[in-house]
Amino acid sequence: MAAAAVLMRRLGVRLALGLCAIQSVAGCATGRIEQAYVPGGPVVATPARPMVDPFPYERQPARVTNHVEGMRDGYVVRLLRFQSLGDNGQPENMVSLRYFERAEGARVPLVLILPIWGGSAYPPAIVARDLVARGQVNVMRVLGEETMMDWGVLSRALDVEAFRSAFRQMVRRVESSVVDLRRLLDWAETRPAVDARRIAVVGFSESTLQAAGLMASDPRLAAAVVVMGGASPHEILATCYGPPGLLREEVMARFGWSRAQYSAFLAPLVRPIDPAYLGSRLGPDRVLLFHAERDDCVPESARDLLWQTAGRPTRVIVRSTHAGSFLGMTFLGGNHIRHRILQFLTEVLR
Length: 350
Fold this sequence. Notes:
The protein is α/β, with parallel strands linked by helices. The chain has helices at 2-23, 122-134, 151-155, 160-188, 208-217, 233-237, 242-255, 259-270, 275-278, 300-309, 322-325, 336-348, and strands at 32-35, 65-72, 75-83, 94-102, 108-113, 138-143, 194-204, 221-227, 287-292, 314-318. The longest helix has 29 residues, at 160-188. It is globular, with a radius of gyration of 19 Å.
């Protein structure tokens, strides 16, 4: 069932992009509003950032298998792999990534690009390609073959306590993945090509939770780009289509819950990874958000809460749906999301 769910999600994204292109090449995902960060703007009350590190671990470089694949445009291309400290939902609980390291010259910034777990590889791959083509930063692109959420395991939980236990396992996967990324930064800052004072993260959709986890916990992070994410994961899971929607309908029918009861059940379980409760250590001038105006996966309340929690940083609101907004990373959508990400990272990592 898990494999079928992932396939349905991928087909759903492709169908959304195809319909968007058919409807209007010029209009879908090209229209947008940019709300600039305003220093000294009104202060909005948000949950306080935890005084303790929300993702603690013993800081030391991960034991990385470092395989050189070749050279490309002045970069040494490496395939890196290391063992997760926990269950991360990936094959053999390994963390895998492709690392483009500047072959010579002074230390330069590092951009960590996160995947759409188990989904389309296009958004992270094209941003990595853009950054490599510019040649001004080191690039680490994490490879996420499998989704963090094992929809099959969750759907096979036949009573409430079994479902609670299975869902906690999925939350722990997200927590483990944030710690793994921090361990990766421990390794990266030992590299002679990396300027550890200038590290950025880019997250898309599901991986915006990991991006938010780094924003909340790791002081080495200097910038973040969050594409189509939100706070309140319980509200997202109570809204989103595809595998989350299929699971939701199955669970609601099995336990006799309403959608509101489903969301309320999940709320305390997702709190350890909810950006609204984690807060952000990054200044809002170092954060760029992208949201979809007609997002049919991330509700408006969750989008706005993430924006408020991050201190009202600059955000680009794309006039499209969740999947349709990613057309802005293709020529059909004018590539405006790609261009804006490059512009932001170039400016903030100088």
